[in-house]
């Protein structure tokens, strides 16, 4: 992932994520060191009231359950950005459903991103 992040920066891309994703990835364990290394090159957007509200609307529009809240916050963070957005994820079906109708947002499986 670190190599992919470096490549994105070299291409002039802004890499960001939702702060909500930290709850899915960090565990207070030694393995967190690799994640913190990656996060050093990522803008971590806070989960604001507006993002939370948008996430709820996206869950409703997609007909998903609230257990998809973190994915919905990632999608809402993408919706809030200007210009084209690429979401890199291992959960393409849910993120695709959550961003349906937002033509400038493209969802790509993490394995499809060049190493």
Mind explaining what this structure looks like?
The protein is built from six helices and four strands, in the order αβααβααβαβ. It is of the alpha/beta class and 115 residues long. Strands 1-2 form a two-stranded parallel ribbon. Helix 4 packs across helix 5. It is globular.
Strand order of the largest sheet: 1-2
Q: Tell me, what's the shape? A: globular
Number of helices: 6
**Helix share of residues?**
40-55%
Give the biggest beta sheet. 2 strands, parallel
How many strand segments? Answer: 4
Low-confidence stretches: none
Protein name: PIN domain-containing protein
Organism: Sphaerimonospora thailandensis
InterPro entries: PIN-like_dom_sf
Primary descriptors:
single chain; 115 residues; alpha/beta; two-stranded parallel ribbon; 6 helices; 4 strands; 48% helix; 14% strand; PIN-like_dom_sf; PIN domain-containing protein
Quick overview:
This is PIN domain-containing protein. The chain is an alpha/beta fold and 115 residues long.
Task: Set down the secondary structure blueprint.
Elements: H1 2-10, E1 16-18, H2 21-25, H3 32-39, E2 43-45, H4 49-62, H5 69-80, E3 85-89, H6 92-98, E4 105-109
Parallel strand pairs: 1-2, 3-4
Helix pairs in contact: 4-5
């Amino acid at each position: 992932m670190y190599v992919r992040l470096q490549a994105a920066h070299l291409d002039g891309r802004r890499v960001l994520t939702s702060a909500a994703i930290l709850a899915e990835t960090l565990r207070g364990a030694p393995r967190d060191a690799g994640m913190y290394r990656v996060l050093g090159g990522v803008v971590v957007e806070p989960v604001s009231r507006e993002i939370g509200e948008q996430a709820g609307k996206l869950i409703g529009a997609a007909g998903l359950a609230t257990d998809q809240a973190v994915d919905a916050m990632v999608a809402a963070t993408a919706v809030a950005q200007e210009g084209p957005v690429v979401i890199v994820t291992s959960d393409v079906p849910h993120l695709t459903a959550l961003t349906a109708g937002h033509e400038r947002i493209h969802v790509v499986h993490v394995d499809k991103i060049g190493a």
